[in-house]
């Protein structure tokens, strides 16, 4: 027993000694390794720095070769372009400024690996914003009486583009719905915004303040250059637009070159006639007044008076100012200079204005600051020209009665931005032109819905001698007065939140069906059948020409066009 105990103690002593010796050996090895690392640390830092430098030089070299190759594919004139711009934007209005920001903005975190087809090596490309040269005829704050309502769909587009703060700090007023007045009755409509996680309520503001905010946002990017000048013509070589000729503020003529020129110089565009064949129709005139310190009967609501002969609008554009727009038929525009306009507003329009607004309306007339603006309409029908694209009011207009112009313009900016996003090289004009056919198809849902709605609304409630149209307008108003789904659908369509042309047509047919039912019930009569037939005929006379102008196939069946599915050309992605 004692012998076994001694053997056990001896065994534990041996294990302890061995482990102690192993620990000392490990400690000595660790001290040697730390000393070695201290000696080689400066060499490691130098080696790592050299390798990182070579890696960056390699990326820059490959990038430079790609840029040089792209430059060789373009013409010499383009390579020598002013500022080396990738895109020229003509006009710095809502569409032009938003587009400049969208194309010039750095796409943070967007990193692409590009494989060289010959060597097989992968090149790291960090995609930054495009170099955008914006030429605007006047960079001073514009003063207009339209473009002062941005619908909820437009506010959603601002969030999509990162421009939502442009409605801040300009005393913009939220618009939560509309109130319609007709023959002593009224219908209050609210815009359903509960499902949106951001504040997309419509905004009323001074147009010029909003424009300046957009311009400031675009100019804040180092890749965007804003210049004041009047573009007089496009530079063409072999049928391809290479740039523009413009006069600077001092009157000196200059040129700018870029592989892509985008013309969005507004409703008074002087370049439109070279790029499209659409005819501009002047449907009526808006007469603008500014009411001061006037409290609307329903705060944060637009007020629409369906008067005779046409519509009167009231909406807040600041905390102390209310804009009033009186629609005047184009055939009967009274003269402002000889006092005819003042007399027309006081005797014809003022008696139909709600009593809460009457005194402020008359006071604004007496103040004398009466302004007019033509209400134009023009369907989108651009000729495909390599090197250039037409956008904004220069390309497509609708009656401003529903305030949808800016919503359409911002939607077009998003469509074009998404199409250009995967492209690295824009110098192959023919391939780019064919690819951008997709723009004219993809923009259709929003644009066609807003266009047809605005022009149909004006034909229903604007000046017209057609009694059947007036009956349709009355049926539409009666449907809105019922509330429920019809009124919520109306605000969604007007607000640009429902971009469905088919839904719009069905919505219109519901109002027509309601009107026919009203004429035929409770007991159909010969007179009721005759009036119903006239009403249906008048409804067809409104909606069918609008559908034809927009293009039935493009509007309702865009997926039947090959351009709807067109992928970016491979040569433009390299």
Automatic annotation (TrEMBL):
GO biological process entries: response to hormone; sterol biosynthetic process
Keyword annotations: FAD, Flavoprotein, Membrane, Monooxygenase, Oxidoreductase, Transmembrane, Transmembrane helix
SUPFAM superfamilies reported in the protein's UniProt record: FAD/NAD(P)-binding domain (SSF51905)
Catalyzed reactions per annotation: squalene + reduced [NADPH--hemoprotein reductase] + O2 = (S)-2,3-epoxysqualene + oxidized [NADPH--hemoprotein reductase] + H2O + H(+)
Squalene epoxidase domain sequence ranges: 257-526
Compartment(s) where it occurs, according to its Swiss-Prot or TrEMBL record: Membrane
Any GO molecular function: squalene monooxygenase activity
Pathway the protein acts in: Terpene metabolism; lanosterol biosynthesis; lanosterol from farnesyl diphosphate: step 2/3
Cellular component per GO, a single term: membrane
Main location: membrane
Topology in membrane: Multi-pass membrane protein
Enzyme class: oxidoreductase
Function (record text): Catalyzes the stereospecific oxidation of squalene to (S)-2,3-epoxysqualene, and is considered to be a rate-limiting enzyme in steroid biosynthesis.
Name recorded for this polypeptide: Squalene monooxygenase
Organism per entry: Musa troglodytarum (fe'i banana)
Classification of source organism: Eukaryota, Viridiplantae, Streptophyta, Embryophyta, Tracheophyta
């Amino acid at each position: 027993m004692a012998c076994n105990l001694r053997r056990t103690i001896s065994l534990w002593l041996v294990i302890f000694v061995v482990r102690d010796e192993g620990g000392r050996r490990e400690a000595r090895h660790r001290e040697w390794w730390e000393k070695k690392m201290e000696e080689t640390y400066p060499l490691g830092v130098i080696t790592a720095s050299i390798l990182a430098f070579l890696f960056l030089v390699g990326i820059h070299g490959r990038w430079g070769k790609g840029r040089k190759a792209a430059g060789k594919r373009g013409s010499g004139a383009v390579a020598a372009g002013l500022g080396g711009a990738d895109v020229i934007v003509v006009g710095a209005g809502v569409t032009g400024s938003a587009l400049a920001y969208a194309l010039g903005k750095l796409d943070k975190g967007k990193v692409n690996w590009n494989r060289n087809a010959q060597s097989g090596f992968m090149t790291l490309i960090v995609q930054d914003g495009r170099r955008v040269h914006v030429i605007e005829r006047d960079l001073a704050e514009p003063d207009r009486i339209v473009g002062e309502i941005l619908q909820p769909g437009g506010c959603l587009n601002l969030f999509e583009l990162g421009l939502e703060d442009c409605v801040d700090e300009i005393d913009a007023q939220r618009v939560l719905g509309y109130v319609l007045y007709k023959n002593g009755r009224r219908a209050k409509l609210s815009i359903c915004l509960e499902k949106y996680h951001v504040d997309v309520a419509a905004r009323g503001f001074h147009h010029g303040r909003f424009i300046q905010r957009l311009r400031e946002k675009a100019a804040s990017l180092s890749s965007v250059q804003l210049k004041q000048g009047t573009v007089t013509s496009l530079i063409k070589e072999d049928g391809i637009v290479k740039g523009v000729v413009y006069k600077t503020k001092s009157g000196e003529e200059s040129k700018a070159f870029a592989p892509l020129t985008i013309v969005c110089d507004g409703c008074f565009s002087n370049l439109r006639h070279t790029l499209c064949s659409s005819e501009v129709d002047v449907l009526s005139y808006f007469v603008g007044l500014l009411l001061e310190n006037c409290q609307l009967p329903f705060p944060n609501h637009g007020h629409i008076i369906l008067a005779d002969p046409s519509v009167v609008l009231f909406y807040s554009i600041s905390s102390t100012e209310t804009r009033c727009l009186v629609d005047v038929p184009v055939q009967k525009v009274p003269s402002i200079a000889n006092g005819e306009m003042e007399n027309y507003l006081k005797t014809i329009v003022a008696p139909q204005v709600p009593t809460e607004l009457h005194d402020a309306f008359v006071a604004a007339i007496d103040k004398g600051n009466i302004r007019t603006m033509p209400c134009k309409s023009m369907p989108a029908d651009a000729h495909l020209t390599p090197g250039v694209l037409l956008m904004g009011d220069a390309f497509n207009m609708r009656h401003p009665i529903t305030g949808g112009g800016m919503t359409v313009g911002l939607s077009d900016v998003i469509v074009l931005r998404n199409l250009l996003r995967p492209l690295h090289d824009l110098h192959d004009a023919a391939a780019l032109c064919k690819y951008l056919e997709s723009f004219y198809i993809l923009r259709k849902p929003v644009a066609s819905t807003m266009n047809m709605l605005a022009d149909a609304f004006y034909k229903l409630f604007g000046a017209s001698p057609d009694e059947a149209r007036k009956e349709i307008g009355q049926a539409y108003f009666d449907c809105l007065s019922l509330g429920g789904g019809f009124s919520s659908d109306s605000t969604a369509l007007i607000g640009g939140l429902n971009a469905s042309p088919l839904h719009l047509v069905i919505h219109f047919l519901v109002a027509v069906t309601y009107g026919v039912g009203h004429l035929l019930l409770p007991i159909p009569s010969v007179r009721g059948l005759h009036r119903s037939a006239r009403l249906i005929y008048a409804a067809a006379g409104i909606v069918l020409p609008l559908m034809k102008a927009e293009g039935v196939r493009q509007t309702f069946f865009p997926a039947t066009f090959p351009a709807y599915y067109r992928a970016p050309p491979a040569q433009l992605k390299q």
